[in-house]
């Protein structure tokens, strides 16, 4: 519940998450979506806020908080999932959990971007959908995966 989340609120994680979201946006800004193509993937403000809240929620039960996270960024289109980046939230901390953030391209754009996944240089801004999925894997335990769909 929301009041319980307030009790676990960590100001350091808040600042770290803001910096992480800047890094996520920069990584998406130079995402490789094909052999020689780059596209600037744009996160809508609503998506940015939702992802930020979800990452903080998933980190609150971890021994090192958000500092112990490894974040894998993926972009899903059609039935394929493209890896666009890996971020160690705090490289000085031994990771305790891995988050895979699966973002989706706005499906209304698909006909316009089919050519992006062929060869040839290009640069095109693309908007992401507000739907996403986060997969959490604890690296210190044999617990099952936790998959959150938003």
From TrEMBL:
<protein>
    <recommendedName>
        <fullName>DNA damage-inducible transcript 4 protein</fullName>
    </recommendedName>
</protein>
<dbReference type="GO" id="GO:0071889">
    <property type="term" value="F:14-3-3 protein binding"/>
</dbReference>
<keyword id="KW-0963">Cytoplasm</keyword>
<dbReference type="GO" id="GO:0005739">
    <property type="term" value="C:mitochondrion"/>
</dbReference>
<dbReference type="InterPro" id="IPR038281">
    <property type="entry name" value="RTP801-like_C_sf"/>
</dbReference>
<keyword id="KW-0496">Mitochondrion</keyword>
<dbReference type="GO" id="GO:0001666">
    <property type="term" value="P:response to hypoxia"/>
</dbReference>
<dbReference type="GO" id="GO:0032007">
    <property type="term" value="P:negative regulation of TOR signaling"/>
</dbReference>
<dbReference type="InterPro" id="IPR012918">
    <property type="entry name" value="RTP801-like"/>
</dbReference>
<comment type="similarity">
    <text>Belongs to the DDIT4 family.</text>
</comment>
<keyword id="KW-0053">Apoptosis</keyword>
<dbReference type="GO" id="GO:0006915">
    <property type="term" value="P:apoptotic process"/>
</dbReference>
<dbReference type="Pfam" id="PF07809">
    <property type="entry name" value="RTP801_C"/>
</dbReference>
